[in-house]
């Protein structure tokens, strides 16, 4: 990339040409004024827009509390002494490790509501314009970071706005591809809707302007290479010709950065499990003990009991199995599959199968939560209880580390991303049943760390098989758990240091 010194020389050359033209016309005052103005602009840009190599902006046009991968980026950057501006919506509560980190500054942006007047396309266009103006204003106030690390999706209007700000600030733009925004939009509008076609065109054009790209699977990396022409060409664009008086030649780069669990995701000790269950029992009935303790010194939840005389915590005899799933309650997760499988599981027990009762916990927030809660209310189980809590950032890893089995219903809109919820479950050595899609094999190994199913009938049979000898330590469920314990899987910090840090150190 051409440096600032060359940009100054280029601008002074232009100023000289203008001045010579003005002088030849006898306009000495105009000559002096133009030269002074251009010199002022150059000096101002040298002072204000010189990137701070120790400053990185991490941007999410969404709820920061529900964007764990980007908060992990922020924590990793701070660990390497970068100052971080973490920009996004302040919705869900962030983890205390982020809130208490002196090197991370939270920069909130407001979520823009669409107008309720006019055609839908007009409402959407107005929202995008307002959001773009707000985002540009916020980014211009955050200083001059050496990099802006942007989550996509959502990329409209954030990719174009961020690229423009990077041109002005002389920052490098990194896009972290979690999925494609247009494929998510197609779930609501249909693949042939004009808005979806426009979003795809926008994402392809502006996505290729990034200096670097990270993605979550090798399948996505290959798709970016073959269909989006990212990481296949050297592009020559006068990126700063108008704004900065220089041009640059830069390479596209797509790098697979798999989601990995941070160290907070691990198996939860039994005493901490008990405290968590007792806390949840105050609000959610499925966690309450089924029977009262005969001894006043014994405190019980449905899963555990604490003997206050000895301080020992044990599992309750004949306890139910704890099944957990997490979701954003969106169209790419069909929870009717799980509900139908639970109906079959209930019928297995009614038909005489020796199976434990279940407590099914589905965590998360999202637009379809009310719809599925309405379906759950219509179910009348005798052996299964379902609750749908929203857990704080500190509680979620503890519950995963306390569960017996995880279920994942994430079905990628593009078929190219992997569910982070499974990554977190594996970090807690929690076996998983996951619904099949194209690149799931990059994460879930069938019959090794879990099972893959295609429909509700297969899921029901898998639940029956896995819980048939619960909680026997020789069960297949415990074999999967042991495989996860012995896998010595890479953690986020190690993966980030190997993959991202070299990019930042060698721009």
Automatic annotation (TrEMBL):
Membrane topology: Single-pass membrane protein
Chief place of localization: endoplasmic reticulum
Reactions accelerated catalytically: an N,N'-diacetylchitobiosyl-diphospho-di-trans,poly-cis-dolichol + GDP-alpha-D-mannose = a beta-D-Man-(1->4)-beta-D-GlcNAc-(1->4)-alpha-D-GlcNAc-diphospho-di-trans,poly-cis-dolichol + GDP + H(+)
EC annotation from Swiss-Prot or TrEMBL: 2.4.1.142
UniProt-recorded Gene Ontology molecular function terms: chitobiosyldiphosphodolichol beta-mannosyltransferase activity
Sequence ranges assigned to domain Glycosyl transferase family in this UniProt record: 320-480
Localization per Swiss-Prot or TrEMBL: Endoplasmic reticulum membrane
Entry keywords, A to Z: Endoplasmic reticulum, Glycosyltransferase, Membrane, Phosphoprotein, Signal-anchor, Transferase, Transmembrane, Transmembrane helix
UniProt feature coiled coil, ranges: none
Gene3D superfamilies in UniProt: Glycogen Phosphorylase B
Residue stretches spanning the membrane: 7-23
UniProt xrefs under Pfam families: Glycos_transf_1
Role this protein plays: Mannosyltransferase that operates in the biosynthetic pathway of dolichol-linked oligosaccharides, the glycan precursors employed in protein asparagine (N)-glycosylation. The assembly of dolichol-linked oligosaccharides begins on the cytosolic side of the endoplasmic reticulum membrane and finishes in its lumen. The sequential addition of sugars to dolichol pyrophosphate produces dolichol-linked oligosaccharides containing fourteen sugars, including two GlcNAcs, nine mannoses and three glucoses.
Name under which the protein is recorded: Chitobiosyldiphosphodolichol beta-mannosyltransferase
Biological source species: Microcaecilia unicolor
Gene: ALG1
